[in-house]
Every structure is written in structure tokens, then in C-alpha cells.
From TrEMBL:
Upper taxonomic lineage: Eukaryota, Fungi, Dikarya, Ascomycota, Pezizomycotina
All copies of domain Nephrocystin 3-like N-terminal, residue ranges: 348-510
InterPro entries: AB_hydrolase_fold, GPIID_WHD, NPHP3-like_N, P-loop_NTPase, PGAP1-ab_dom-like, Quinoprotein_ADH-like_sf, WD40/YVTN_repeat-like_dom_sf, WD40_rpt
Coiled-coil segments: none
Protein name in UniProt: GPI inositol-deacylase
GO cellular component: endoplasmic reticulum membrane
Length: 1584
């Protein structure tokens, strides 16, 4: 036999279930309203019903046909239904289940009776009656049987029945059919017409004309003719007339009065009904008195008809069946299995099979190629119910059929012998010729006792049934794989059936390789297969669950949909599991009991799995492989791909598997499936639980600890192997030399080893040794692979799981074991690395080898990893351990008042009116918005560039990118809170209303005032006149507002519907709601969690369910500020004592605590990823990155325990920051000026702080060495200037007493921003934005000034590269050469720079004889970070052709600039001026992502920090040819060296750094960092 591939749907059903729309809010008032328990499945598919004759029910041996005919305006279904519910369609739903009608076949007849449709299809009663007769006479059910016919008609339907019967009696061809009509039931039939019909015709005559409406008029000609003719043919008929006794609505009289509703015949039974014209045939329940009257009448008729069947005929039929059963040896009851599956099937289910092409061909086809269909499915996927559905469909369609349901373990139902005998008996009952043939065999003495299946097949079928001229017949076999001996006989049976035999076969079985191999292939007997998928049965399962959950009393109507969804999710397509679980749920009385039922293996699944394992145990080969496959599939953290499983098995059992997918199906196919994506999964979750339960004695059951230990060892063996070895030289860029193709198992091993490790046996020495070896050898390669996957969460998960394993190991070993301490340190390192170095790892994973470890704390394991071979070193600033504090910003002159995180920024609103924006990742200052008054509230509009700032008077909406105001409004009086909800901006006022603006409106931005108080509020919560809220919370996710007043409980207000919802509060000991003063309120942001956290003035922190007004938790916390994390998991609480506590929101379990200085915490805020926490206190804003949040936010399934950590952190008071830096000309020491006014000395080699040289009273701004004098010039923030001699002594070294040479001051309101020393001239220059000033270097006395009042700005003064008596000034417009002695201008060149950029800094450098100026530019309207560098050819700044010594005075042609000079824009005679056009070819602009220029190395490389905090460089000695850049910027090769952690620059607007030889000096807080060897690491990029 040959098999064809499974077919696809002709019209595939939707793969997604329609789900009820989620509620707008958990707090919505509508939640409390009751909802209908009716499910969509309980509604009829067609409320009216189809036209024509429709079969509603057919028993196996019908004796009577009921035909229901509707009346005017009715339909084949609607007339007989009280409502659209399918259960109200009583002819189909009630009568078939009534034992009194077990032999009754039921039909309904529909025709077009809607009088409002117009003139088309205008039929009268005569034509409708004729159509009715035609439908009956051609029905295969009625035509091919000898049943008696009973017709039941409502209203005009009675006339149609009479007319059809009259026509049948008049035509000879219908004589036999007419004789079968035995009884007529008339329900409110207008035998003499209806007054309502006359009225109706008058009303509709203008527009419509329905002939049959006129037929119903009183005493109409058509009615009279029908009555007269029926009187002559009704002899012998049983007649029942039921008439109405109540008026319909809008009618003043009966539609059909009693006189017209009865025939008046002598033999007629006339019965009144307490109903109107419409309800006379519609009933609410089977207990309805009117239904009881009609039912009893129908029973009476049925009883009479069955009593009239000749007793001799019945006796003869019984004897033939008895003889057949005796000859064939079949039991008395045959259809118990069919009845069971039919009863189990939900109405409306299994219809998907009718859309399958192979099924349709099998059912309707005529050729032999498609006569056999094999339906395959996994265990418990509803195959038996589906087989029952197929049988029922064949029955309803009038086809001849036979069936058999195999059942494993039941000898009477598991043998092919019993199946063949049952088939033969059913075919004999269906076909008289077959029955006669068997009885003839019996008469000839043929005995079937003790014959085998082959002989039975030959006698009964080959020599018996197949020799008759029987019509087409269908065989349906269920669970053929449960037949004990199908292998020997069934294939032979199929092959022996020729195409002339009109038998079509369908069988179901589990989808197993062995079963598939048992059928030989043959072109003469093809078998088409159809696989049952989860998508096929999804709708059936939904129907089953939806219907059954309606009867679960323990679940409320609002929760049923969620429970149903959960059941469907867990079912994995298993009907058996679903049915068993639903049965157990009926016995549940609590939510915990429901959850337990859903988690356990339901009773009834164990026998199925036990039988599968028994069959697997009988296999002679492959048991070890099968056990290993089950272990990996059952215990894997996620479904493995077939290639991953192949790698795992290869390492586990040291073998190879060329056709693993086939092996999996053959060895474990009933328990393991491979989906279309190649993922290997258990057939159902209960199969996994059964294998792990340990209750079975099967060799395939799994010990979970042993399995995870073995799997962890396999993963670790791979991670310790050659593929994972790190590069030998630990250099960046070496990743390219690593294996380009790793095993497919590598990804699973890298991401999942820690999962298995956390569940492994902690006492297993081999596992512990593998862990230590991995952490010592290949962990950096593992981190690189994880970073390359772009999902660093694996590092943090590994940290948590490793901690679980280490804790377990610590119980087995000494806590002082160095190995345990090392493992514990790794758990911390793995959590911190992604937090601190995500930027670098995501961009360049190979940085983990050499660039990242040097920046980690010195006691961390990652710092020590590969330290001996690492060339890069960081000295002077590293902590010993990790710190949870990410940054601390001190605003000094202003107080932070508002704090808010957006998607990309952290905003801090200040009392000065400024709002400072910081990047949410790097915390470098981005922009300052000037609101104009103290800012009390900030709100970001999600997923946009808009931020709103609110003060007491003004509300502004800004575009963050441009820094411009988009909208400006007047703030409502005394604002209390502000929130965005889509395009709507809401501000709450202390005057008890919300002011809202629809920013998405293009028409008007007029505010809407919405009070939150109305007449429906109880007096206990309604604010008193003029009452002021003491606390308020707005929730856009819940569309709710919570507001508290002094002496009142908390009021809940629905902001969407503007209605009062309820009140809540903590509970007193008496049970009453507290009215204590509320300090702070916050909603859980998760819309699915309806919780409210509240702090009270008495120090209590309460967790409330506000909708139910229930207190869940309450304790003394002494907190005043609250904040909820965006993911809804955490609640932060801070108070006056400076302590911040972080709790789990839903339990208030403490996770984290930080104790700092005793300053009042004004506000808290979580970052958008819920892993960072910011607070404002005093003049500071601090951002924390607690390890507890990093781990908790990820969640994990590796442990049922919640990770908790209580952390005590030192005071947040920061060290004095470094504000200026300069290297000694010998490069031996570095001098740093600090924000506390101190001037400190650091050793360049180690970065060690040698001590303080001297102090200013104000923060140091600028430093400059005077090498020839061994002196240091320092400038402070108050414009104080000091010069100290700093020399190294033999005794005290560099810290010998510093001698002050002079102390001076610039008397100006402008701050000094630049300083330059001219040793040869004996002067130094200081510069402000508006002026430049010359001082004597000998005495510090002021000499002269040059003003720039008309063009203020930043100017950078540089030493002239060729003349020590001259200096160069760069101001963004031009570069000029001046004389030191009098600031006279010598020469200048124009700079072709755009107006949109400003000068930030400039420096001069030399490459051989070439002199260049590097100009650093910034875009003030975009960011504080610069994005351009220009290189100027300084050779064009030629000095005077003849230098004049200072004693000889100055050139008479140059005007002296002294204090009386008023303008720096004069035209100095004798000055050499070069226009911009001449300069242009000698200026090279470079477009680079530069945050700060660090310096120019002596080799000619420009070293800078880019915006991603990478230290980079470009080679200026090999700049592109100047002629190639006439039209634009240069294409340059940028070299990336190493990454600097972004927290080093947190809170800083200006970066203080220096380049000393090849060492880079950076500052971190109050310390100096020396980074040595960093420039040796390189990765080149081409940047346009």
C-alpha cells in the first residue's frame, strides 16, 4: 500500500481563538456588574434556520417521521424556538432525548414566508404546498423507508400541510406516500382565515403584494377550497387542533380566533392553550405546561402508530436478529462505545474534519484511490470522539455504515475477531441480502466457532458479503493501534479487497513509526493519511472548556474566561487531560485548589502513560538512547532543536546519530514530538510530570536531581573544551580567529548550563571540579558568546543560578573554602558586568578579554581573570568591591524638586526653574530646559520626544531634541500631580478638579475642567467645601485617580467615565476604615494588578485592594515618598531618616535597603526597565543600581525562592571632585585641582594620591605649569590667581613645602575660562567670555586688557609654535597671532565654520616641521557632546619677519592695546591677514562622534572619547590630502581602543582628562585614574 502526505484544509479554520476584549480597567465600575453566562457556542449558528426539508434527528431504526412546518413570518428554526439559544429549539433538542420518541425521525421544513420582502417569489399556499410535497417525496430518508408520517404545522403551515396532502391524494404517483400520512397537528392554524391577515394586507398593499397574505383573509376563496377538499380526503387521519387564548402585544384581539382555529370535524381533537399566536409553539423549558400538553398529544399519537405495527412482523425481525447474533457470536449490546463518544462530544465540535480535502474525497469520492483514510494523532487528541462524529455524520446523511471501537486491555474489544463479527452483523442488519446470505450459511451448518481471523474474513466477507450486490458502505475503525493482532490480518484484508467492492474505510490510530511500518506499501491500495494537529482541535477544546467552566461554582463569571484560557494553554491539545481536569475542578472549593489541580497530573492519565512506557520497555534495541532522549527533553529549560539535541546526545553517550529525527519518533514517538520548527517537545506537560513523579517502576522514569547533574556536566564539559578556549594573547579583534562554526549545542550549553547546575547534586565532586575549571579557564569566551547573542540577561540569570548552586555547596563544604569564596565572587561579578559594561559588550564582545577586566574592582574575579598576560592597566581609582551607587549629582546652588524617568532620559526639576536632562544609560548631562520658575512636576510622553514641566504658574510642553517649547498653558491653581495618557495631559489641582488638554487635537487646545466630586459620593468621602487634598495619585494605566483628604478615607475616581468608584484605606482594629492623614499614594502601574500603596503620617505603610476596600498588609515603615516600578514588581519607600526601602509590591516583602545621610527624601523614581532607582534629597540626586533589582527584574524559573537582599550602603556624601588637571613637564607627577579648592599631587606611574600641595578657598578652575620656574599657576572660581613653586626634594619628595610666589585676583564679574603662560615674555594671560587680561608672571600684577563686549564668547589662547614672544588666539571666526608684550595683532586667518557650531577647545601640536591646531567644536542646540574637529595648518600663522626684543619696544605700525582699548575688532596696521578663501584648502573638518578630545599624542594621533564612551584615535600625520577636501569633510580611519564605564562620567557636564605620553588620565569622583597600555589595543573603523 502506498501512502500520501497529510492534506491541508480546503478552508482552514482560523488558527486563533476569538478572545473577549480585556476590560478597560481592573478598577472599572463595570467589573461589578453581572454578565450573561451564555457562551457563543450555546447560540445557534442560524437563528432562522434553512429552507427546504431539514433532518434534525435520526435514530438507528426509525418507525415514525415528524415534520414541523412553520407559518407566516416564521422559519424552520425560529418558529419552534423561544430564543436564539440552541437549547430552546425543542424539536431538535428535547424530543430526541425523550425516551417516548426513541423511534421517531424528526425534520423541519422551511419556506419563504416573510411578507416584507417585496413582490419577488410571490407564491400562494397552493404552490408552497406543492413544494412541500415535492420535498417529502424526494427525501432519501423518507423515500427509502416505510415509516409513518406525522406533520405538525403552525399558523399558515397547517394550510400548507393540508394542501400538500390533498395534492398527494390526487396524484397516483404519490399514493403510497399519501397512505403513510397518519396524523396532523394544527397549532393556531386559520382554517377559515384571520382578521389580522386582512389588516396586514391593507397596511402593506401600497408597497408589497404577497399572495399568501391574501389567502389568509377570513372566508378567502383559497381557504374555502382547501377546507372543502381536505374534508373529503381526511377520513382515517388523526387530527389535533390547538388554539390560542391570549392576545399578542399591539393587537386588541386574537390573531386566529377559536372558531377559525378548529376544523369542526367529528374526529378532531380541539385543545385550548394558555398562549398567544406566537408563543403557542415556543416554550421556555420542558416543564412548560403548554409543552406538556403538546408532548402528551404527540406521545399518544406515537403510541397508537407503534401499536398498529403487526406483531408478527416485529416477532419475525427479532428472530432474524437473534439468529444472526447466534451465528456470528456477537454480544447483545453493540453500540455502547458509539453512545459513549457521542455523549462526550460537545455540540458543534469536530466540524473541522469536514474542511479537510482527504476526508471529503473519502466521504464523497467514487474511485478506489481515495477509499481508505488513516487519521493519525497523538495520544488523547480526541480521535475516538472524532470517529464517533464521522459515524453520526454518515448516519444523518443516510449512508450505510458499520463501525468498531478498539480498546486496549479489554479482550472483547481488542481482538480483530470481535471486530469482524461486529462488522458482519451491522452489514447484515443494513442489507437484507447480506442477512439472508448469513442465515443461509447457518442453515447449511456453517459454524464460526473457534475459527481464526483469516478464516473468519474469508467466510464472512470474501465468500459472503462481497458476493452480494450491496450498495456503497462505510467502515469506521477507531484506535486500530489498540487491536492486539492487527499486524497479521488487517493489511491482508485491505490488499484482498478489489476496487469493485463498494466499501470505504476510515481508521484512527496514534501516530507511531512502528504502526506506520506495519502496513506494506502497494500501488493497488493507496492509503491517504490525515494528521490531527493542535490547530485542528483548538476550537473543539475551546468549546469544551467554555461550556464546562460555566458550571464551576467556585469561579465567578468574570474569572471564567481567564481560567478557560489557562486550561487551554496547559492542555497542549489533549482532550483526555482537559476532561479529567474539568471533572476535578468541579470538586474544588478554593483558588488554591484550582491551581493545584492545574499543576498535578489528573487521575486517569497514568494508565495511558504506563502503557506507553511498557511498550517502550519491550523494545530490544535503543533503550539507552530512548532514556537519554527523554531525560534531555523532559529536563531541558526550553525545547531543544533537533540539532541541539544531537549535540547533547553525542557528548552524553559518546555516539553519533545519522538519522536522529527518525530515531526520536521510533523510540519515543508517543511521548515526544518534533514540531514544524524542529523543536523537540513532550507530547503534553502531564507526560513530563508522570516521568518525574517517581510513582512508576518503569526504567524510563527520571530522577530529576540525577538528570540535572548529568546535563550540567555535559554542558560544562563542552564549556571546558577546546571550542571555548580564549585567545592566547587576550587582544581585541582576536574573535575573528576563533572557530567560525561552533556546535549547534553551543548555544544551549552557554545559555542553560547554569539552569541545570542550580538543580544539580551539590555533593557531586565531578560537577564542582568542572565548575571551577570552567571559571578559571574559559569563562571569558563564554561571556563573549553571550554578548555576541545580544542578550546580556543570560549573565544575570547565570549569576542567580550560580548563587543557588554555591549556597548548596557551602552546606557540603567549609564556608572558608577558597573555591567557595571564588564562586561567590563570580556570582556578584556576573550580575554587575552587564550593568556596567553593556555598551561595550554589545558593540564589541571581545572587549571582555582585556578592555573590561581592568576597570572592574580589584577584588573581583573578573579583574583577576587573565591579569598576568594583560597589558592594559588602570591605576589609582579602582574600588576593591562593587558599589550600588551609580552616581550622585550635587546641584549646590539649587534644590531638586521633581524627578522623572522617560524612555531615554532622566529629568530633574530644580527650584531655580531649570530642568536638567541626563541620558538614562550614561547619565551624562544632555540638555538644560529653562522653565522660568520652580519646577514641581515633570512628565514624559511615552515613545515620543515630548516632556511636560509644571510650576505653580506655567505649564510647558517641550520637544526634547530641539529644546524648544511646543505648548505653553497656565497651570491650574496649586497643582498636585501631572500625567500623560496618550495624547491627553492631565494636571490635578488642589481645588478638587482635573485640568486636561488633548495635545493630539488639531482644532483646539482649550483645557477641560473635570471635578472629581459628585452627588453620588458618600458624605464620609466627599470633600468639605474648600477642602484641600493631602495626597493624590494619577494612574493612566488604570484610568483612575486616588485622592485623600484630612479626616476622610481615600476616594477612588474613574477618570474615563468621571464617576465615583468607591473608597478605601487601612483598617483600624475595630474594622473601620482609617481617616488618618495620608502622606503619599501610588497605584501599581501594571493594569492587571489592582493594588494601591499608601503611607500615613503616623508612619504606617499599607497595601490595599482599593476596589474591594481590603487591607492586604500594614506595618510601621516611617516613609513619606513612594514610587512603583514600571513593571509593577517593586515599591520604593523613602523617609526623613534617609533610608530607602525596596519591597515586592504585591507582598511588601523587603528586598533592598540603602541607608545614607539623614536627609529627607523628597521623591523617588524607577527607570523604565525597573532596574535603577533615583532619589532626590537636599541638593542632591542619586541613582542606585541595586543588585537585588537587577536579579529580581529578570525573574527566573530556576528556583521557587525569591531572591532577597538587605544592603547597607555608606553615606552618599561624595568626595571633592577633580575640576582641573595638568601634568608636570617631566611627566613624573600629575597635579589636580578640586572642587573643595585643594591642589593635590598624584604619582603618574600609579595614580596614587601623594598629598595636598596647597588650597584655595574656592573650587579650582584652571591649572598651568611654569616649567622653567618649577612653579604652578592655579585659578579658582572666584577669579583668585596663585603661583606656587613646587619642587621635588630629596627628603620630602614632591610634598616639600610649596612656596607662594604671588597671589592675585581678576576683578571682574565674568569667570575666568582660560589661562596661558608665556615664560619668555614674563607674562600670563587669563580670559573671560568678554575680555582678555595680561598679568606679570613675576609679581602677579595686572598689566592690560582687551575687551570683546560686542562679540563675547569662548576663545582659546595657545603658544605660538615658532615664536615664544607671540601667542595665538582661536575664537571660532578666525585664528590670530598676537604679541605677548602688548597684545598687538600680527596676523590672522579666517575659519570657514558654520554659524551653528561653537568653539569648545583648541590645542596646538607639531609633526616634524609641520604645525597644526586642532579645534574642538560643539553644537549647543543639539547636545553638550561635540561632533566635529577641524585641523588648521598653523604654518600660515607666520610671526613677524623680524622679531623685536621687548626692550626695543613695539612696531610703531601696531596699535597698543591697553585698558582704554574699547574694542578688539580694530584694523591693526602692519598685520598680515589671510582671507578665508586662501585658508580653505588648509582646514580639514572631520565629522566624528566626539564627546571630548583628550589630547594629541606625540606620534600625531588625536585621542578622543566618543559618545559611546570608547577611547578612540585618528592619525593626523596621515591626514587626507588637503586638495581632496574642497567640497566637504574627510573620510578617516578611526581606531577604537577601549571602553570607559559610563558611571565615571555620571553627572558631569565637562570631562576632565589629559594625555601624558601614552597614558590617559581620567577622573572618577575625587580620584585620578591612570590608564596605561590602552592605546595598544586597536580596532579600526572607517568613518565618513
Amino acid at each position: 500500500m502506498r501512502r500520501t502526505k497529510p492534506d491541508q484544509n480546503i478552508n482552514p479554520p482560523s488558527s486563533s481563538r476569538d478572545s473577549a476584549k480585556s476590560s478597560r480597567s481592573l478598577f472599572s465600575l463595570s467589573k461589578a456588574l453581572p454578565t450573561s453566562s451564555t457562551t457563543p457556542a450555546d447560540r445557534a449558528e442560524d437563528a432562522k434556520g434553512p429552507l427546504g426539508l431539514n433532518l434534525l434527528h435520526s435514530p438507528s431504526s426509525p418507525e415514525i417521521d415528524f415534520i414541523f412546518v412553520h407559518g407566516l413570518g416564521g422559519s424552520s428554526r425560529k418558529t419552534w424556538s423561544k430564543s436564539s439559544l440552541e437549547t430552546h429549539f425543542w424539536p431538535k433538542e428535547w424530543l430526541p432525548n425523550d425516551p417516548a420518541f426513541e423511534r421517531v425521525r424528526i425534520h423541519s421544513y422551511g419556506y419563504d414566508s416573510h411578507y416584507l420582502k417585496g413582490k419577488e417569489d410571490c407564491l400562494n399556499v397552493h404552490h408552497i404546498g406543492k413544494s412541500f410535497l415535492g420535498a417529502i417525496s424526494t427525501s432519501p430518508y423518507i423515500l427509502n423507508s416505510k415509516t409513518s408520517i406525522v406533520v405538525i404545522g403552525h399558523s399558515m403551515g397547517g394550510l400548507v400541510m393540508k394542501k400538500a396532502y390533498i395534492l398527494a391524494k390526487q396524484e397516483a404517483v404519490h399514493k403510497d406516500l399519501a397512505d403513510r400520512f397518519l396524523s396532523f397537528f394544527f397549532l393556531a392554524t386559520p382554517h377559515r382565515g384571520s382578521r389580522s391577515a386582512k389588516m396586514l394586507k391593507s397596511l402593506l398593499k401600497v408597497a408589497y403584494d404577497r399572495a399568501y397574505v391574501g389567502n389568509l383573509e377570513p372566508n378567502s376563496e383559497a381557504v374555502q377550497v382547501i377546507n372543502d377538499e381536505f374534508r373529503h380526503v381526511s377520513a382515517g387521519l388523526e387530527l389535533w387542533s390547538f388554539y390560542e387564548t391570549q392576545n399578542m402585544k399591539l393587537f386588541s384581539s386574537l390573531i386566529v380566533d377559536p372558531e377559525s382555529a378548529v376544523l369542526g370535524y367529528r374526529e378532531e381533537k380541539q385543545i385550548p392553550m394558555t398562549a398567544d399566536h406566537r408563543s403557542i409553539c415556543k416554550f421556555e423549558t420542558p416543564e412548560d405546561p403548554n409543552y406538556a400538553i403538546l408532548r402528551n398529544a404527540l406521545i399518544s399519537t406515537v403510541g397508537k402508530i407503534t401499536a398498529d405495527v403487526p406483531e408478527e412482523k416485529q416477532k419475525q425481525t427479532r428472530e432474524r436478529k437473534r439468529d444472526l447474533k447466534k451465528f456470528l457470536g456477537v454480544p447483545d449490546i453493540l453500540d455502547d462505545d458509539l453512545a459513549s463518544v457521542s455523549e462526550a462530544r460537545m455540540k458543534g465540535s469536530c466540524k473541522w474534519i469536514s474542511t479537510k480535502a482527504s476526508y471529503i474525497k473519502w466521504r464523497d469520492g467514487q474511485c478506489g484511490d481515495d477509499r481508505t483514510l488513516w487519521i493519525k494523532g497523538k495520544p488523547a487528541t480526541g480521535k475516538s470522539v472524532l470517529a464517533g462524529y464521522v459515524v453520526d455524520q454518515l448516519k444523518e446523511s443516510g449512508h450505510a455504515y458499520s463501525y468498531f471501537f478498539f480498546k486496549h486491555g479489554d479482550k472483547s474489544k481488542s481482538s480483530l475477531d470481535r471486530c469482524l463479527r461486529s462488522l458482519a452483523f451491522q452489514m447484515a442488519i443494513a442489507h437484507l441480502e447480506v442477512c439472508d446470505a448469513f442465515l443461509a450459511m447457518q442453515a447449511d451448518g456453517v459454524s464460526l466457532d473457534r475459527v481464526d481471523e483469516r478464516t473468519l474474513w474469508r467466510i464472512l466477507f470474501i465468500q459472503g458479503i462481497f458476493q452480494t450486490t450491496m450498495p456503497r458502505h462505510f467502515w469506521v475503525f477507531d484506535a486500530l493501534d489498540e487491536c492486539s493482532n492487527y499486524v497479521d490480518i488487517f493489511p491482508v484484508m485491505l490488499l484482498s479487497m478489489s476496487e469493485s467492492i463498494p466499501v470505504r474505510i476510515l481508521f484512527t490510530s496514534r501516530d507511531t513509526v512502528h504502526f506506520d511500518q506495519d502496513f506494506p506499501t502497494s500501488s493497488s491500495f493507496p492509503i491517504h493519511s490525515l494528521n490531527i494537529s493542535m490547530a485542528d482541535t483548538e476550537s473543539d477544546l475551546s468549546l469544551l472548556v467554555a461550556r464546562k467552566t460555566q458550571s464551576l461554582a467556585v469561579v465567578g463569571p468574570d474569572d471564567r474566561a481567564a481560567l478557560a484560557e489557562k486550561i487551554l494553554e496547559k492542555s497542549r491539545g489533549s482532550f483526555l487531560w482537559t476532561i479529567l481536569v474539568l471533572k476535578e475542578l468541579l470538586r474544588c472549593h478554593s483558588k488554591k485548589a484550582i491551581d493545584q489541580v492545574l499543576e498535578d497530573v489528573p487521575r486517569g492519565m497514568e494508565p495511558l502513560y504506563s502503557r506507553i512506557l511498557d511498550s517502550m520497555s519491550q523494545a530490544t534495541n535503543g533503550k539507552r538512547l530512548a532514556k537519554t532522549i527523554l531525560m534531555w527533553v523532559v529536563c531541558a529549560i526550553r525545547p531543544m532543536t533537533i540539532s541541539e539535541l544531537d549535540g547533547a546526545l553525542t557528548l552524553d553517550i559518546d555516539d553519533s546519530f545519522p538519522r536522529l529525527e527518525e530515531s526520536v519518533s521510533a523510540l519515543c514517538g508517543q511521548l515526544v514530538v518534533i514540531d514544524k520548527y524542529g523543536n523537540v517537545k513532550m507530547v503534553h506537560e502531564t507526560a513530563r510530570e508522570f516521568l518525574l513523579a517517581g510513582e512508576s517502576e518503569s526504567e524510563f522514569c527520571i530522577n530529576l536531581i540525577e538528570a540535572h547533574t548529568r546535563m550540567a556536566q555535559v554542558c560544562l564539559n563542552y564549556l571546558c573544551g577546546d571550542e571555548m578556549r580564549p585567545p592566547r594573547n587576550n587582544r581585541r579583534g582576536y574573535s575573528a580567529a576563533l572557530p567560525t562554526k561552533r556546535q549547534d549545542f553551543a548555544i544551549y550549553a552557554c545559555t542553560s548550563f547554569s539552569y541545570h547546575l542550580s538543580r544539580a547534586d551539590s555533593s557531586a565532586g565531578d560537577t564542582f571540579r568542572l565548575v571551577k575549571h570552567f571559571l578559571k579557564s574559559n569563562i571569558l569566551t563564554w561571556i563573549e558568546i553571550i554578548a555576541d547573542s545580544q542578550d546580556l540577561n543570560h549573565l544575570t540569570r547565570a549569576s542567580k543560578r550560580l548563587k543557588t548552586y554555591v549556597n548548596a555547596c557551602a552546606a557540603e563544604r567549609s564556608p572558608l573554602d577558597p573555591s567557595i569564596r571564588a564562586l561567590r565572587q563570580w556570582t556578584t561579578d556576573l550580575a554587575r558586568i552587564p550593568a556596567m559594561f553593556a555598551n561595550a559588550l554589545m558593540l564589541s564582545p571581545s572587549t571582555i578579554y582585556s578592555c573590561i577586566p581592568p576597570f572592574c574592582p580589584t577584588e573581583s574575579m573578573i579583574h583577576k581573570a587573565g591579569a598576568s598576560s594583560r597589558r592594559i592597566g588602570v591605576y589609582g581609582t579602582l574600588n576593591k568591591d562593587w558599589d550600588d551607587r551609580l552616581m550622585c549629582i550635587d546641584f549646590r546652588q539649587s534644590q531638586p524638586k521633581a524627578l522623572r524617568y522617560g524612555d531615554d532620559f532622566l529629568a530633574v526639576g530644580l527650584s531655580s526653574g531649570n530642568v536638567t536632562l541626563y541620558h538614562a544609560t550614561s547619565y551624562q548631562e544632555y540638555k538644560v530646559l529653562n522653565h522660568g520658575e520652580a519646577v514641581h512636576f515633570v512628565a514624559f510622553k511615552p515613545k515620543t520626544d515630548f516632556v511636560a514641566t509644571c510650576g505653580m504658574k506655567v505649564l510647558k510642553v517641550w520637544d526634547v531634541q530641539s529644546g524648544q517649547v511646543v505648548h505653553q498653558f497656565t497651570s491650574p491653581p496649586r497643582p498636585l500631580g501631572m500625567e500623560f495618557d496618550g495624547d491627553t495631559l492631565s494636571v490635578a489641582s488642589r481645588n478638587n478638579y482635573l485640568m486636561t488638554w488633548n495635545l493630539g487635537s488639531h482644532n483646539s487646545l482649550e483645557p477641560m475642567q473635570r471635578p472629581w466630586s459628585d452627588s453620588d459620593m458618600p458624605e464620609v468621602t466627599k470633600p468639605s467645601t474648600g477642602g484641600t487634598p493631602c495626597a493624590l495619585a494619577l494612574s493612566s494605566s488604570h484610568k483612575m485617580l486616588a485622592v485623600a483628604y484630612s479626616g476622610k478615607s481615600i476616594t477612588l475616581w474613574d477618570m474615563e467615565d468621571d464617576i465615583y468608584v468607591g473608597s478605601c484605606g487601612k483598617k483600624l482594629s475595630s474594622g473601620e476604615t482609617s481617616t488618618h492623614i495620608v502622606v503619599s499614594i501610588v497605584f501599581n502601574p501594571n493594569p492587571d494588578i489592582r493594588l494601591l500603596a499608601v503611607t500615613y503620617l503616623d508612619g504606617d505603610l499599607a497595601l490595599l485592594d482599593p476596589f474591594l476596600d481590603q487591607q492586604l498588609e500594614c506595618f510601621r515603615a516611617n516613609s513619606q515618598a513612594l514610587a512603583a516600578s514600571p513593571n509593577g514588581r517593586f515599591l520604593a519607600a523613602g523617609g526623613a531618616n534617609g533610608i530607602v526601602n525596596v519591597y515586592e509590591f504585591d507582598t511588601l516583602n523587603l528586598l533592598y535597603r540603602v541607608k545614607s545621610s539623614n536627609s529627607f527624601i523628597k521623591q523617588l523614581a524607577f527607570s523604565k526597565d525597573s532596574m535603577l532607582l533615583a532619589d532626590i534629597r537636599g541638593s542632591q540626586c542619586t541613582v542606585w543600581e541595586p543588585e537585588a533589582l537587577l536579579r529580581e527584574s529578570l525573574g527566573d524559573d530556576s528556583s521557587g525562592n525569591t531572591f532577597t537582599s538587605v544592603v547597607e550602603t555608606v553615606s552618599v556624601e561624595a568626595k571633592a571632585s577633580i575640576t582641573a588637571i595638568v601634568a608636570h613637564h617631566t611627566s613624573e607627577v600629575i597635579v589636580c585641582g578640586k572642587s573643595d579648592g585643594s591642589v593635590a599631587l598624584y604619582k603618574q606611574e600609579t595614580g596614587a594620591n601623594l598629598g595636598t600641595l596647597y588650597r584655595h578657598k574656592s573650587p579650582i578652575r584652571l591649572l598651568a605649569w611654569v616649567p622653567d620656574r618649577d612653579a604652578l599657576l592655579s585659578v579658582d572660581a572666584s577669579n583668585g590667581i596663585s603661583l606656587y613653586r613646587v619642587q621635588k626634594s630629596t627628603e620630602k619628595g614632591w610634598l616639600s613645602d610649596s612656596i607662594q610666589i604671588f597671589k592675585s585676583r581678576l576683578d571682574s564679574n565674568e569667570a575666568i575660562i582660560d589661562v596661558l603662560v608665556g615664560e619668555k615674555s614674563g607674562r600670563f594671560l587669563v580670559s573671560t567670555r568678554e575680555s582678555d587680561h595680561i598679568f606679570s608672571l613675576n609679581s602677579g600684577k595686572y598689566e592690560r586688557e582687551r575687551k570683546h563686549t560686542q562679540t563675547p564668547g569662548i576663545r582659546k589662547w595657545l603658544p605660538h609654535p615658532r615664536s615664544p614672544l607671540q601667542l595665538v588666539c582661536v575664537d571660532g571666526i578666525e585664528a590670530c597671532t598676537y604679541c605677548w608684550d602688548d597684545l598687538s595683532r600680527v596676523s590672522s586667518i579666517s575659519l570657514p565654520l558654520e554659524n551653528t557650531v561653537e568653539l569648545k577647545d583648541a590645542a596646538i601640536f607639531s609633526i616634524g616641521k609641520k604645525h597644526r591646531i586642532v579645534v574642538e567644536l560643539m553644537c549647543p542646540n543639539n547636545s553638550v557632546n561635540t561632533n566635529r574637529v577641524s585641523i588648521i595648518d598653523a604654518n600660515f600663522l607666520a610671526p613677524e619677519s623680524k622679531e623685536v626684543p621687548p626692550s626695543q619696544g613695539r612696531n610703531d605700525s601696531v596699535m597698543a592695546l591697553n585698558q582704554s582699548s574699547s574694542d578688539g575688532n580694530d584694523s591693526d596696521r602692519g598685520m598680515v591677514s589671510i582671507p578665508a578663501t586662501a585658508l580653505h584648502p588648509h582646514t580639514i573638518p572631520l565629522q566624528l562622534r566626539i564627546a571630548h578630545v583628550i589630547g594629541v599624542h606625540e606620534s600625531g594621533r588625536l585621542v578622543f572619547l566618543n559618545r559611546s564612551f570608547w577611547v578612540c584615535s585618528i592619525d593626523l600625520s596621515n591626514s587626507p590630502s588637503e586638495d581632496s577636501h574642497h567640497e566637504g569633510s574627510a573620510a578617516v580611519e578611526v581606531t577604537e581602543h577601549f571602553f570607559v564605564p559610563y558611571d565615571w562620567f555620571a553627572g558631569k557636564k565637562d570631562i576632565v582628562c589629559a594625555l601624558v605620553k601614552r597614558d590617559i588620565m581620567l577622573t572618577r569622583g575625587g580620584d585620578l585614574a591612570v590608564i596605561r597600555g590602552g592605546l595598544d589595543y586597536a580596532e579600526r573603523l572607517h568613518v565618513e
